[in-house]
């Protein structure tokens, strides 16, 4: 699980969703911000007012002169610093629905982790039983080589005494060579299968790996399995789609919240120069208030967004229905294939018993001199094929068993 990239990616998505949920909850808390600024003007503008004689009501000279003055239009040094608090009071239910949306997203991320892990487990399970199968088939070929070696020795002895022809010796040698070639091929395939399994479980590709199973165990209760509607609810895909439907409904509520009154409170503690709010320069001032905003007319925007949300909900529900049908089909197929493989295993068991008995019979008959080498080689070939079919049938049962548990959402470590 720690090695697989898909699982690690799904775990990263889950951590992301956990952080998003925490952020969503904290958006309901008050926020505090600190801001400051400083401005320096090298040559501030000034307003010069010239002196003038004060006017009188009768238009005669007053003799009173007002002197000129100079006023700064800007400060050479200007600064401000403030700490503020803001707290949402009512946003039309947006924060509550956003929190619910984050919770659903986290559930979907967890379902996605389960899905990635199930895919990995099925892949490893399949590769594991391939290794077991090849390991058993290698043992069968090795036994076949031992048998053919003994037969070749017996046929050569008979050839030297003139009982059989050289052609019989060559036939036996060819069969022995074919078995040796099969052993090389199976050994190579076994090593490649081990490499693939090592890669899937996170080992080095060339790491030594020991397979514990030498005899494949088939549980008896597999023959009685049947379809159950509750299996659908266990599938991560169905859980994902159910949450997708719920998310679409929550998104509709978020759209409605955008067109409701938005009320936010605020408070600030400020010091600035110049300060147009305080009685004295450099004096700290405090202000607080409530802001209200509400959309009035947006040219039918709300109605169109509702249509979009309705279509999104409908699409999510259709996807859920379609996936439910496909997964139901997948479960039933998995059940059929598993039961078919169990029937085939029973058939191959019978064939294996017959091949074992036939090989013993032909071996004894050859030793007694009442049969030909060809008959014994045919019996040996039948024995080898029957063993191979039996091993393949057992492996198919175990692979289909894993696929069945994956189909019903119950494949676990």
Automatic annotation (TrEMBL):
Species the sequence originates in: Labilibaculum filiforme
Localization of this protein: Cell outer membrane
Primary location group: membrane
Transmembrane region(s): none
GO molecular function, one term: efflux transmembrane transporter activity
Keywords assigned by UniProt, alphabetized: Cell outer membrane, Membrane, Transmembrane, Transmembrane beta strand, Transport
Protein name: Transporter
Pfam families for the chain: OEP (PF02321)
Superkingdom of origin: Bacteria
Family: Belongs to the outer membrane factor (OMF) (TC 1.B.17) family.
Gene Ontology CC: cell outer membrane; efflux pump complex
């Amino acid at each position: 699980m720690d090695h697989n990239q898909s699982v690690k990616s799904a775990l990263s998505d889950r951590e992301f969703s956990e952080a998003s949920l925490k952020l969503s909850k904290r958006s309901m808390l008050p926020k505090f911000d600190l801001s400051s600024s400083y401005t320096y003007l090298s040559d501030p503008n000034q307003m010069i007012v010239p002196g003038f004689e004060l006017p009188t009501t009768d238009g005669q000279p007053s003799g009173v002169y007002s002197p000129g003055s100079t006023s700064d239009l800007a400060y050479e040094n200007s600064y401000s610093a403030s700490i503020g608090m803001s707290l949402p009071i009512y946003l039309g239910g947006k924060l509550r629905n956003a929190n619910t949306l984050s919770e659903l997203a986290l559930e979907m991320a967890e379902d996605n982790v389960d899905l990635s892990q199930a895919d990995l487990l099925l892949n490893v399970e399949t590769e594991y039983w391939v290794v077991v199968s090849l390991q058993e088939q290698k043992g069968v070929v090795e036994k076949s080589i031992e048998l053919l070696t003994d037969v070749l020795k017996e046929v050569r002895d008979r050839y030297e005494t003139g009982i059989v022809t050289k052609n019989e010796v060559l036939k036996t040698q060819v069969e022995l060579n074919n078995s040796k070639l099969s052993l090389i091929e199976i050994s190579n395939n076994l090593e490649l299968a081990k490499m693939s399994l090592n890669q899937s479980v996170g080992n080095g590709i060339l790491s030594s790996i020991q397979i514990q199973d030498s005899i494949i165990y088939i549980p008896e209760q597999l023959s009685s399995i049947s379809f159950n509607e509750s299996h659908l609810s266990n599938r991560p895909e169905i859980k994902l789609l159910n949450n997708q439907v719920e998310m679409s409904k929550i998104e509709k509520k978020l759209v409605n919240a955008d067109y409701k009154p938005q009320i936010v409170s605020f408070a600030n503690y400020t010091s600035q120069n110049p300060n147009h709010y305080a009685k004295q320069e450099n004096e700290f001032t405090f202000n607080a208030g409530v802001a209200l905003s509400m959309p009035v007319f947006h040219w039918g925007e709300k109605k169109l967004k509702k249509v979009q949300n309705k279509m999104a909900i409908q699409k999510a529900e259709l996807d859920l229905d379609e996936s439910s049908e496909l997964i139901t089909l997948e479960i039933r197929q998995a059940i059929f294939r598993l039961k078919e493989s169990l029937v085939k295993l029973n058939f191959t068991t019978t064939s294996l018993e017959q091949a074992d008995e036939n090989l013993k019979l032909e071996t004894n008959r050859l030793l007694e001199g009442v049969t030909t080498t060809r008959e014994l080689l045919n019996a040996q070939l039948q024995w080898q094929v029957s063993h191979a079919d039996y091993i393949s049938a057992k492996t198919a049962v175990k692979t289909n068993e894993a696929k069945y548990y994956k189909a019903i959402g119950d494949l676990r470590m």
